[in-house]
Amino acid sequence: xxxxxxxxxxxxxxxxxxPETVKQWLKTNHITKSFYITDLGFYPNANHHYRSRMKGSSxxxxxxxxxGEGWLKVKDEQMKVTPNHFFxxxxxxxxxxxxxxxxxxxxxWMHFDGTSAQNLCDRCNPNSPxxxxxxxxxxxxxxxxxxxxxxxxxxxxxxxxxxxxxxLNFISSFIFNNLNQTVHPTNSDNLVGSIIDFLMKNxxxxxxxxxxxxxxxxxxSYIFHLFKKRTGYSLIHFFNLKKxxxxxxxxxxxxxTVKEISHRLGFQDPLYFSRLFKKHIGISPNKYKKEQNS
Length: 294
Known about the structure:
Radius of gyration: 25 Å
Strand order of the largest sheet: 2-3-10-5-8-11
CATH architecture of the largest domain: Sandwich
CATH superfamily of the largest domain: Regulatory protein AraC
Mean pLDDT: 89
Low-confidence stretches: 1-8
Shape: elongated
């Protein structure tokens, strides 16, 4: 059995533990089964807060420290937790955590599970649980309060689905924070963004890597490797994909023929455009148009 020091709770705390029947429903619901929350709360100035689970937990545990200090011990490794640090403990993992005796932490916490929970945890902890620092963002607290209020209001099916989708957004804002380049983009991110803008404005043109290299005054190899690293695609593959996606719009919303569309997208050979379209979309342009209008 868990050794739990907490007896009376903390002044100002918020906590919700979902009923077992609701958890079982979330586990099988098609929308929530990939990610669902089982418990969540906020413990301010959590003096004497302590947990010891020798056999671990049956759910994944997320904790985010906003004030004070504490520590996490996983197996034989002990790690200090300070403000703007979070950690996720995988299921069935022996652990202890405790608020600092002189400067106890204030924490937001969430227990979650689902078919994608392990993969999410692995993104955060590729080898073993660790303490991760993250920039402060007030909108995370707004989102948490929104989720909490939905759970507090009852367990109506659409509300539960919406709350858990928001819960996934909340967790993802921590796990994938390093991918958020919108606040402080680097020069290389600006370059890739500029290239993408240029390509999107010139879908009617035909460009090779050398053309883009000359346009932006960087070497072909630098642009190739940078673009691939930032987007996951080679530049020409990305450009052709966007052309095909634009072709889908033409097929869906206009009466243009495949030949006319291919010319609008910078392809002189309609057959090449059709082969490229089928490669990306899985069916021919004519079949796609027929399916959209059926």
